[in-house]
Amino acid sequence: MHDLSPSTTAVTLAPATGADIREVFCNRVNFYATAQLAEAAAERDSDLAVCSMDEGWAVGKRLADLF
Predict the structure, then answer these.
(1) In terms of DSSP bridges, do strands 30-32 and 49-52 run parallel, antiparallel, or are they unpaired?
(2) How far apart are alpha carbons 15 and 19 in whole angstroms?
(3) Closest listed residue to residue 11, CA positions, set 44, 2, 28, 63
(4) Tell me, what's the pLDDT at 19?
(5) Which residues of the chain are under the pLDDT cut of 50?
(6) Cβ(17)–Cβ(26) under 8 Å?
(7) 38, 10 in Cβ contact below 8 A?
(8) Contacts of 30 (CB under 8 A, 6+ apart)
(9) What pLDDT is recorded for position 1?
(10) Measuring CA to CA, how many Å separate 53 from each of 15, 28, 30, 45, 50?
């Protein structure tokens, strides 16, 4: 990741389970200015994982490479 602003940006990831991928995954993957904000969102949704942008990028890249 280059030139990310703010550098503290974090992302929440959700498991892609269920019939409606948009509802169970896409609508729950969000970007936050800080890990603390992402963690607060994860406290309200126990399925969410909080990742740094580098970690989120790596997960997304690995999934995309499967297709």
Answers:
(1) unpaired
(2) 12
(3) 28
(4) 76
(5) none
(6) no
(7) yes
(8) 11, 12, 38, 41
(9) 57
(10) 17, 16, 11, 20, 10
Tokens 């280059």 belong to residue: 2
CA distance 31 to 12: 7
- The whole-number pLDDT of residue 64 equals 82
Please give the helix or strand (H or E) that residue 12 lies within, else none. Answer: strand 10-13
d(C-alpha 53, C-alpha 7), whole Å = 9
Q: Is 3 left (phi over 0), alpha (psi -120 to 50) or beta?
A: left
Question: Tokens 């890990």 belong to which residue?
Answer: 35
Would you state the pLDDT for residue 7?
86
